Amino acid sequence: MLPDTTPTTGPAGAALSEAAAEAEAARIIADAYRPTPTLPSAYRDTSPLPAHGDTPPVPQPGIPPMSQRAVDASRLILTTGLATVPPGLIAIGILIASRQADPTVIGMICAAPAAVAVPVLALARLLTRAAEAAPDTHHHHYQGPVHQESTTTHTRAVFARTHNDNRH
């Protein structure tokens, strides 16, 4: 045995005899090589799950939850939008094949949505500024402690950049 692991004293503090030291060493070695009891590494709970609980539902990542009416409307919008692509491609193919396609006319047709959208956006901005110029006056009467929070959102440009000003 090594000197740092050799027991030198017994239970009462007296030195161990050579036979007692060998017996203690044998006991320690036997304890070290004794197999450990096997513990389960997994547990399957077979009790039935409750039909509902008191935890509220949590929105999952992806498309936000919508009503059935909103789902139906969005599907209708997508399918009607996709339904306009084949006739447009056919019309372009016919114009190019008949050599009636004028690049100026095609440019005007493609720019028509932007030409309509610019005045509409300008009018919407004008109305927004007019509404900001004369804000509503609110009078609130409270009894007790109150925490009031005001949030102002500014969104500008075609590619939107939003600035939120939170005042507490």
What brief labels describe this structure?
168 residues; elongated
What does it look like?
- It is built from four helices and two strands.
- It is mainly alpha-helical and 168 residues long.
- The model has no long low-confidence stretch (mean pLDDT 76).
- Strands 1-2 form a two-stranded antiparallel ribbon.
- The protein has helices at residues 18-33, 68-83, 85-97, 103-133, and strands spanning 150-156, 161-167.
Indicate the topology.
Layout: H1 18-33, H2 68-83, H3 85-97, H4 103-133, E1 150-156, E2 161-167
Antiparallel strand pairs: 1-2
Can you give me a brief rundown of this structure?
The chain is mainly alpha-helical.
Radius of gyration: 40 Å
Give the total of beta strands: 2
Helix content: 40-55%
Note poorly predicted spans.
none
Query: How many helices does DSSP assign?
Result: 4
For the termini, the CA-CA separation is: 74 Å
Strand order of the largest sheet: 1-2
Mean pLDDT: 76
Please state the structural category: mainly alpha
Strand content: 5-15%
Q: How does the overall form come out from the CA principal axes?
A: elongated
The secondary-structure element order is: HHHHEE
Biggest sheet features: 2 strands, antiparallel
